[in-house]
Amino acid sequence: MSITKSLMRGMAAAASIVVSPFTMSATSSADRQFVADASAAGEAEVAMGRKAAERASDPMVREFARTMVNDYARVVDRLARLAAEKGFHTAMPTAEQQLALRRLEQLAGEQFDREYLRIERRAHADEIELFRTQAGVSGDPALKRFAAAELQTLEQHQKLAATLPVRAPAA
User: Fold this and answer.
1) Which sequence spans correspond to the domains of the chain?
2) Fewest 10 Å CB contacts: which of 45, 56, 110, 167?
3) In the CATH hierarchy, which top-level class contains the domain 27-163?
């Protein structure tokens, strides 16, 4: 092998070492952000679902809320285990999510039901986008599989939320 070829191979190997840590840290950063965003959303879903299971006036909304609590408690637990394995931190609900919960706490009856379903429909659209993106671009195979698997559940939730009747406000 010529010195030139050997030098070029050595330079290529060195370049891959230099590029590889940058690529890994960028991927880790995106994966860490996904874990934070998904765990915050999951915790918010559990909190709002518990509140709705207690306060919703419509039995169908209460049943939907119980489903959200059960499904999201499982998702949050599974994500927390994955995060711990990778040294990532989970997050609590964001300020916006906490504000939505406080708004719900001030409502009752059909107003509560309408607001809860409005929040759920918007939240599921956001969560589906988050999980779909992660399932497509994650650098971490376990997080990619997690996002893809849970995406199906989120889409089912969205369809179910869309079927729930939203009663018009009383005149």
Assistant:
1) 27-163
2) 167
3) mainly alpha
